[in-house]
Amino acid sequence: MSLSHYGNIVSESKRVLKPGGFLEMAILDVDMLNMGNCGRRAVRGLKLRLQQTDPGLVIGSASDVILKTVGKRGFTGVKSCNVGVPVASAIPSPAERAAKAAHRGTESQELSLTDLLRSSSNASDKIDAKEVDDNITKMVAKVGRFWYTRCYEGVGGGKRSIFEEQALLQECEAWNSSFKLVVAYAQKPVQARRRTNSI
Question: Per the structure, how many domains does the chain have?
Fold first, then answer.
């Protein structure tokens, strides 16, 4: 978005909130943490595509822009937390996938996050803890890539996703790259700032 759009969203949020109400935010930045050369090149190319689409778009840190705007619009008690969402988990080769499927005796099936959490807490299942952790990381990474694609790559038009490049995913896995997700909240003041006229 452009700076004016960010300002409009924050102003409208403040207008509709009751005094003392909270604004909760989850902001995904375009830059990733712990990027290698391949990741930097891919993100730089994505930023160039975004700038060509609309020169007014903010391609810097969205979280910094939004949190600064929230402070300027009069919200108080702004608190934030940075969360690293993995870009890629261990990417097994086709041979490793086949070996795992043969080891289980069935075809490899993709479980939902709820099933994975349930199986990690259930001692009677035969899935070991490391495999459950790997599967959860894989699921979280897939959701992170989906949201990154929706937020940033969808704006640039019908280009292919940067995550279709296997070298990028392997580099992200080796470098432990992660998306920067900022979770924050701020409170609308109970009493508005008073404006007095001097006589």
Answer: 1
Asked if the structure places residue 170 within a domain, the reply is: yes
Domain-located, residue 196? no
Q: Which of 162, 173, 179 is closest to 90 using CA atoms?
A: 173
Asked whether residue 123 carries a pLDDT value surpassing 50, the answer given is: no
Residue 158 domain flag: yes
Tens digits of residue pLDDT in 103-121: 655 444 565 555 655 555 5
> Would you say residue 147 lies in a domain?
yes
Distance CA 6, CA 4 (A): 5
Closest C-alpha among 45, 36, 138 to residue 87: 138
Please give the residue range of the domain that contains residue 111: 3-187
Residues 6+ apart with CB under 8 A from 149: 161, 163
Q: Please say whether the beta carbons of 38 and 171 come within 8 A.
A: yes
CA-to-CA distance for 133 and 141, rounded, in angstroms?
A: 12
In angstroms, rounded to a whole number, what is the distance separating the alpha carbons of residues 70 and 76?
9
Query: CA–CA separation, 19 vs 69, rounded Å?
Result: 19
